[in-house]
TrEMBL record, chain A:
Subcellular location: Cell membrane
Protein name, as recorded: Carbohydrate ABC transporter membrane protein 1, CUT1 family (TC 3.A.1.1.-)
Classification lineage: Bacteria, Pseudomonadati, Pseudomonadota, Gammaproteobacteria, Oceanospirillales
Pfam families on file: BPD_transp_1
TM segment ranges: 12-36, 70-91, 97-116, 151-175, 196-218, 259-278
GO biological process: transmembrane transport
Keyword Aminoacyl-tRNA synthetase set for record: no
Family to which the UniProt record says this protein belongs: Belongs to the binding-protein-dependent transport system permease family.
Superkingdom of the organism of origin: Bacteria
Membrane topology: Multi-pass membrane protein
Organism for this UniProt entry: Marinomonas fungiae
TrEMBL record, chain B:
Membrane topology annotation: Multi-pass membrane protein
Residue ranges, annotated region (Disordered): 1-24
Record field: transmembrane: 47-65, 108-129, 141-160, 172-195, 216-242, 273-294
Domain ABC transmembrane type-1: 104-294
Organism: Marinomonas fungiae
Bias (Polar residues) ranges: 9-24
Protein name as catalogued: Carbohydrate ABC transporter membrane protein 2, CUT1 family (TC 3.A.1.1.-)
Family the UniProt entry places it in: Belongs to the binding-protein-dependent transport system permease family. MalFG subfamily.
Superkingdom, natural source: Bacteria
Alphabetical UniProt keywords: Cell membrane, Membrane, Transmembrane, Transmembrane helix, Transport
Entries under PROSITE patterns matching the protein: ABC_TM1 (PS50928)
Length: 288, 307
């Protein structure tokens, strides 16, 4: 659609700008402020330059948390994207069944994140939870509170359970936008199921899949509440992701300087990855 | 816009498919019935697969529901798919105690406030982004989106200090404003998608007919994107309702969300599993109600209006 050049449109954007600036720019400036100062109390503070940044960059614990974070994000993307597409292909398209399936699939998305943690905390316990008990029946001494591997498995499983519906619903809405004539043409050509998927459905899904990957990457990169409730980051630090190590540092130890420097680095990583995605989307839209 | 490329893909796909079918020169009638049978098989596979997925999806929730109707002694004494001594005691405890049920009221208040604020500011902005070019529009859009990407953990402490210093700590509006950080950008994004689907000619005709901008916007434009507004409200509800980290940090007593109150079930005498489960079940109910209302539009909304 052609757009009209009109700088008065700024007036319409102004309220959004003000409200987001209030809750984004002011706090961000506070963070920047902390990241270059050593603060003893509200009246004694020294400018320390990039010292906190150096400290953060060399901090082993943060390196580990960052690596864990990337492994986690890629694992869940690898599972959730294909699984989400599969579920979307299976979802009924017509009648009462379609609405019902839509509502049921969307339920996990609307559960508060701490309750998601609680659900899996209960579900994974061998004494009172079905999943834990089933694992025990299979002869596995399943305990997410003491075995790092089991803790990982539970956290990944929880995230897959929680967020595959988002990918599935995105793909479902992408599939609904394909005109029926495409399928009719494929039927006349006696296209195989795979050919229909590869040459008709998948190209139409590209747009929503990019949104899906972007949202899932961002949100999994910021994950805090669910693992916090489920494992508390443990056993040891095996499921401590970036957000949690940041909160530990800022609130737990009250190391404001390093925590602020860490925040900025963290934010920049997310921003960088998302900028790559955003430009890709924009380029793809331009190509069309 | 997407026609040329998709046409190409389509054409190439048709070629490939056509080539494939030439090689298998089978008689006409049996092939059709075979294809039909294949389609029926695929449909059944889909149904069975979907049922299995839904069972796996709902099982953890069912387990929570099941537990909420049990007493703690029954929960700890062994696993069962149905409560033996069905009890509503856990729910009675929540509805009989203001410190419990006010948690739900608080959550609903700040979520509603956030929905209203997000929609009010996002509607005009989304219109501007979908209709006009202006200095810095692309940068502004990316900057807005970048706030959706900001990890709440980064803003935890500054938010606490900011809201304390302006005297908003422990109020509903503080949480509502804090949640605007990620909900407003999302609302602008979704609404812009829906608005771009409305042809420009409608705007122009209305202006020629003598409508002023506010009158046109409210009387003609908003009704056209009704479903978009509903879906946006749904997403604002969703992300504000499920967030706990900021909500917990910005409140202490008066505006404490239910998620923070739930931690009370841990006590010296051990976990009160039944009560925890009941509280958890009650946090799921509002979400189901809300999605029921937007079920017919939500499929489009999930692609953020951009299918």
């Amino acid at each position: 659609m052609t757009k009209v050049e009109n700088n008065k449109a700024w007036w319409l954007v102004m309220p959004v700008f003000l409200i987001v600036a209030f809750s984004a720019i002011i706090p961000l400036m506070t963070v920047v402020n902390y990241s270059v100062q050593d603060i003893f109390d509200p009246y004694t503070r020294y400018f320390v330059g990039t010292e906190w940044f150096k400290q953060v960059m060399l901090d082993e614990r943060l390196h580990d948390a960052l690596i864990r974070q990337f492994i986690f994000s890629f694992t869940i993307l690898l599972i959730e994207i294909p699984l989400g597409i599969m579920v979307a292909l299976m979802m009924p398209t017509k009648g009462k069944g379609a609405s019902l399936a839509l509502i049921l699939v969307a339920i996990p998305l609307l559960i508060p994140w701490n309750v998601v943690g609680t659900i899996w905390q209960i579900f994974g316990r061998a004494d009172i939870g079905l999943f834990g008990a089933m694992m025990a029946k299979l002869g596995i001494n399943y305990n997410y509170a003491s075995e790092p591997m089991h803790a990982w498995l539970t956290v990944v499983l929880m995230d897959v359970w929680h967020w595959t519906p988002l990918v599935a619903l995105l793909c479902y809405s992408g599939l609904r936008a394909i005109p029926e004539v495409y399928y009719q043409a494929a039927r006349i050509d006696k296209a195989s199921r795979w050919a229909v998927f590869r040459y008709i459905q998948l190209p139409k899904l590209t747009n929503v899949l990019i949104i899906g990957v972007l949202l899932r990457f961002m949100d999994s990169f910021m994950i805090y509440t669910e693992p916090f409730v489920l494992t508390g980051g443990g056993p040891g630090t095996s499921t401590t992701f970036l957000s949690q190590s940041l909160v530990q540092q800022a609130i737990g130890q009250f190391d404001l300087g390093p925590a602020a420097a860490f925040s900025l680095v963290y934010f920049l990583i997310i921003l960088l990855v998302c900028w790559v995605f955003y430009t890709t989307i924009m380029h793809m839209q331009k190509d069309k | 816009m997407s026609n040329s490329s998709s046409m190409n893909t389509q054409r190439s796909s048709e070629q490939t498919i056509a080539e494939g079918s030439y090689s298998s020169q089978a008689p006409q009638a049996p092939v059709v019935s075979l294809a039909e049978r294949k389609a029926r098989h695929a449909m059944w596979r889909g149904r069975i697969g979907m049922t299995v997925y839904l069972i796996l999806l709902l099982m953890p929730i069912y387990w929570l529901l099941n537990m909420s109707f049990k007493t703690n002694t029954e929960i700890l004494s062994g696993l069962s798919f149905f409560p033996e001594n069905f009890t509503l005691e856990n729910y009675a405890k929540i509805f009989g105690d203001p410190t419990w049920y006010m948690g739900y009221v608080n959550s609903i208040i700040y979520v509603s406030m956030n929905m209203v604020i997000s929609l009010l500011v996002a509607l005009p902005a989304a219109y501007a982004f979908s209709r006009y070019k202006f200095v810095g529009d692309k940068h502004m859009f990316f900057w807005l989106l970048s706030n959706r990407m900001a990890p709440p953990a980064v803003f935890l402490l500054p938010f606490f200090q900011l809201y304390s210093s302006v005297g908003l700590f422990d109020t509903h509006i503080a949480v509502a404003l804090a949640h605007c950080l990620f909900n407003v950008p999302l609302a602008v994004w979704i609404l812009e998608g829906f608005m771009s689907g409305v042809p420009r000619e409608i705007d122009e005709t209305a202006y020629i007919d003598g409508y002023s901008f506010p009158k046109f916007f409210v009387k003609i434009f908003l009704p056209l994107i009704r479903s978009g507004i509903g879906v946006t409200a749904f997403f604002c509800f969703m992300f504000s309702w499920v967030e706990l980290l900021l909500a917990r940090t910005l409140t202490s007593v008066d505006a404490k969300p239910i998620g923070a109150i739930m931690t009370r079930t841990v006590s010296a005498s051990g976990m009160d599993w039944g009560l925890l489960a009941a509280a958890g079940v009650l946090t799921i109910v509002p979400g189901i109600l809300v999605i029921y209302f937007v079920r017919n539009h939500v499929a489009k909304g999930f692609a953020l209006g951009r299918v």
